[in-house]
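User: Predict the full complex structure for these chains.
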Amino acid sequence: MLKKIQKKLTKKISKDIICSEENGAIKLEGEVNTWNKVYLSGKIAANSSYRGVINKLKVKNLNLPSISKPLLKDTKLQNKKVDVLIIGGGIIGCSIARELSKWKIKTLLVDKEYDLAVHTSSRNDGMIHPGIAPRPGSKKAIYNSRGNKMYTKLAKELDIEFNRTGSLILYDKWYLKFALPLLKIRAHENKVRMKFLNKKELKKREKYISAEIEGGVIFPDAGIVSPYKTTIAFGESAAINDVEFSLDTIVTNIITENNEIKYVETNRGKLYPKIVINAAGVFSDEIAEMAGDRFFTIHPRKGEIALLDKKKGHMLYSILSKPSLNFKSTTKGGGLVKTVEGNILAGPTAIEQPFKEDYTTTPEGLNAIINKHLKNIKGIRKTDIITYFSGIRASTYKEDFIIEKSQKINNLVHAAGIQSPGFASAPAIAEDISKITIDILKEKTRVVKKENWIPKRKKILTLKDMTFEERNKLIHKNPNYGEIICRCEEISKGEIIDAIHSPIPATTVDGIKKRVRAGMGRCQGGFCAPLVIKILNEELSKDILEITKKGKDSYMVVEETKRDDKNV
Amino acid sequence: MIKMYDVVVIGGGPAGLAAAVSAEKNGAKTLIIERENKIGGILKQCIHDGFGLLKFHEKLSGPEYAYRYIEMAKNIETLTSTFVTSVKKINDTFHFNLVTKDGLLKVTSKSLILSTGCRERTAKQIFIHGTRPAGVYTAGTAQYFVNIMGYLPGKKTVILGSGDIGLIMARRLTLEGAEVLGVYEAKSTPSGLQRNIAQCLDDFNIPLHLSKTVTKVLGTERVEGVIVSSLDETMKILPNTEEFIECDSLILSVGLIPENEVAESLNITLDPSTKGPYVDDFLMSVDSKGVFSCGNALHVNDLVDYVSESGEIAGKNAANYSKNFEKNSIKEKVSIKKGNNILYVVPQYVSKESKEFILYFRVNKVMKNKTVIIKDTENIIFKKKYLFLKPPEMEKIVLKINNPSQLKLEVI
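Assistant: Here is the predicted structure of the two-chain assembly.
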């Protein structure tokens, strides 16, 4: 097997690639001249019976920036002993944290960022996929379909907006209808409900759909959540149930002895966990490597997303996508999504790139979104775009989830390689990871379920959605609810203060934005940013100069202006 | 008890204040609704001078100019820190839902004046790419930081766009000790007033780079620099002209967009060239009678004096409309067409019965020694020579008419 792949790589990519076997995976070493060659080599190696690819190929003259690290250094966590340490505060880490909070154990979640959901979990379309896309039998397929079903109950418990709008796959050429039986087979295998819609039926569901669309298929179980609000909701639910969160905390090393993690080094001290869960997203391969259990590689795949003015929100009800026939296109996937807040979102693209934290957007990416998706609805235009951003999928070369107890390190559990449909799958992944974790823990100590576990978590009040009476009553109780700070999204000072004092407090301008939407409207914070800074300054008793956009040294303002008293 | 007013004015900036003063003077029971905690609008943060030359024949600062109107309006009922959540028109009466610190409030009125001003175009709306660090602000936000809060948004700044606020901020930041590396303008001519180029840039040796724009922002936490590229005459980016400029902030003055979300909620269509409602010479919407528009919500003005002027017109006519509330019928109107080289004209319609009215227009390119004419069908009824015509400078004509049938404005 190894020889066969070596030969293929030599022939197709470069003769400078060296293959070997390590930890049950195939390892690639050497130097090539483009990132695309690194990626293609990984793909070739993945097409084998090895359980993963350790792609250590380097690109000539390419110096990647190092991972962004917290500036903080202290001893807050020094010598701390916990039962479970979760690395990563994205949707996976947070949903696992909530699942584990049902048990009488000490769980700590660490994340290197200033808030939860900073990376991939806040940079996607929030789609709860129906489960049609994954290869039947894959982990993606299994967890997607299980996770999707769980969202109905979870949305109630976590008090999150979840719209089961259904998703539509559209076609614009009559002959494409002959591909539909294949879709039906896939739907049957993955146990996904679907229904064919003709032009008339489509038009009835989506009034503004482009005239070129000939027909489509609906997957009624697809839905939409706000990805960051959902991640934060899972986190808050865990926090209410005594899971500890330590932000601005980066794992710098993992020390093992006799196939067991002994301790974990961070910028805030040495930690002694009984079990470590690797939910580190795009960095999960590096965490695995620190623990001496590397057998996969995350190849970052960027997706750019555009967000449209709410004014046009009424022109879409559900989720639309029109698969591209051009298989070379980098935007095969993606579509139009109606967010829970009522904006239309377009994208994402899919571009392989070397740097895991490269969130730049590009004119090419945005134009691809515009050209591919906007035309599917009549009456939306480039000028309706209010903002755009990008996210990075944590894809492995096997393109499937890794959800398992480490085969090598006894107290390490991987929840890695989670890309789309990761959001839909998260609750099911959390259930299984929690079960694996508790089973390991039970071998070490007595573990019992909590009797007083609180399933319900309350969201921050959204006053604009309330009835006249409810809203009036609240303002009379607390006049801050009657002071509108964000004019585009109609967010009051009271709601912003609530976000600052929530179970996982918002401490930055972006933290507020993600929780209550102040700054997410068409003026993009032009009017409210200074006011939000002032509220943060008052509520956190933090100097205005110390208020950041998104942690570290992302200060909003840099210096006081000249003052008379200074010159006296 | 739901209070009933003759005129409700949304927005207590220079347009709204002038409108309210003029409505009240014409006998209307008037209410001003302002979402900020003080009236005066954006003038509160415009501490530079140059306001009021036309109106008061003296040079005032923004707050001084606002104060004149605040004094005139002091007996007019005003709700500050009050936000309009919805306006509905039922049988020609307007019903407002308001949020205040004292609770929710409902009021009604016979007529409505929209003086909601404008917002600034953002980096994303002009399609700048790269990263999203702290330190990218619109000029108005930067001005708020400096003039209201007393903080600098950056110490080494690039300004994109030569609109007036951008020029004013270039000077302001320099005076406060920041280094302004340059003002970049995508067009081949400046967007701001000539006097601001001279007083804000030339006097402080701040370079103005024409036909150059920022294409990319760099930096993870704070801005670390920008990429600037040259543009050709058609505003296309010229390849291989990228230039890296190290800076810690990017201030944008790339255009203003009239805020007309309330108008749109009343099914009023907006003129794509002004981004404001289509109005007649009474500054009343042609789509919804009883709705008046003025100031920067109607179209972006260059001088506050014109903003106040349009407020006065709207206020007076809204008062008269309310007085004759039962008898108001739609007056027959003729349109004012834009001819050659005209970017926009306000109002877009004029009542057939009118004898005289004020017309504002902007041209779409810089021109020298040209004549502006207004035709009524084929007859030229107005003719004036201009030494210079520039898009940044709004022009005003007081036009006398007699039973017009079809007006057209053009440059020859």
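The longest helix of chain B spans residues 304-323.
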